[in-house]
Amino acid sequence: MVVVVLLFGEEDTIDVQASQTAPSPPIVSVVKVSAAPATTQLSAYAEVNPLWDAELRSAISGRIIAVHDAALAGAKVVDGDPLFSIEKAPYESAVAAAEMELEEAKLALLRAQNNVTVARRQFERDGTEPPTELALRLPQLIIAEKSVAAARSRLSAAQSELSDTDVIAPFSGFVTRRFASLGQTVAPGDALVHISDNRQFELVAEFSQDDWSLLKHPISNTYAKLLHRNGEPLGQARVRHGGGFLDQDTRQVRVFLDITKPDERILAGDFLQVQITGRTIADTFTLPESALTRAGHVWLVGDDDQLQRVTPEILFRSEGTITVLAPEAVGTWRVAKTPLASFLPGQRVTSQLDEG
Q1: Is pTM, for the whole model, over 0.90?
Q2: Which residues lie closer than 8 Å to 167 by C-beta, 6 or more apart?
Q3: Which of 242, 260, 270, 336 is the most buried (most CB within 10 A)?
Q4: Which class for 23: exposed (0-12), middle (13-18), buried (19 or more C-beta within 10 A)?
C-alpha cells in the first residue's frame, strides 16, 4: 500500500510600498557677517627667560673662609649682597708690596726730574746748547715716568684681586644652585653659585612671514599684551627689537621683548601668550572659528539656501574668531556656523539665522 502525503505551504509576503517623499534639507545655523575694517591681533607663545642669568666663578685662587646666607640655594638676593669670602692675607700683602713699589717709583721720578733740572741750568750757565737729549738726562726721566705708570697699574691690579676676595651678587634674583662650600680651595674659573634674575625678563616670540607683514613697522619700543595660558592678562612687554633675520630652524621672524616690571605671577620658565596689535585692514569678515573646516574651507548659504564652498584668506585668529579678507564687491556673507562633513556644493539646506 502506498501512502502519499501532500504538504501545502504558504509563503510569507511583505508589502513593499515606494515612497515618493524626498528627505527634508538639513537645518543649518547661519551667521550673517558684513565687511568691515579690522585691526590685526597677532599672537604667539614665548618662554619667559631671565634677562640676567649667570654662573658666578671665582676670579682668584684661595680658601673660602665664609659662605653667607645669600649664597644658599633658593635664597633671594639683592644686588650687592655678600655671597662668599676668600682668604685675604696673600692679596693684602700684594697690595702693600705694590704700594711700596709705587712710592719707590715716585722717588726715582723725583730724582730724574731733579737731574734734568740741574743739567739744564748747567748748560744755561755755560751758554751752550746741549748736544743730545742724553746730556739733559731726558731718557732717564721718560723711564722714571713710565715706571710710575707701571707701578700704579700693578697696584690697581692688586687692589682689584683683593676686592675679588669678597664675592657679591652682581644683580638681584634667586640663587638656583650653589657649587662651592666652606673651607674649599678654589682656583680662577671655578664655579661658585648660579643666580637668575627675578626682576627683569625677556621673551622671544616667533611669527610667520605673513604675520610679520601685518604688523606696524617699525615695531621697536611698542608694547605687547601678555596673557597666561588660561587667558588671564599679565601686563605688558616692550618690544626691544624684531625682524632683520629668520630663525635658522623654524624660518620664522623673531621678536625680542623685555618685561621690566613683571607681574608677580610671571615666573621664569613659564610660557605666555604674546599679543601684538598690527595694522588696520579695510575690508574683512570676522567669523566664528567653528565655521572653518579642517580642510580650511568655509560654507556659505545663499539667499536660495544653496551651499557654496569657499577657501578664504585667513588674516589672523583671536579669541574664538577668525578674520579673513573680504572679496572685492562682496558686502555680506551668510556663513554656516557649524558645517557638516556631508555638505556638498549646490546642496539645499534649511537656514536658521543665529542672532548670537
Answers
A1: no
A2: 56, 58, 71, 82, 83, 84, 85, 86, 192, 193
A3: 336
A4: exposed
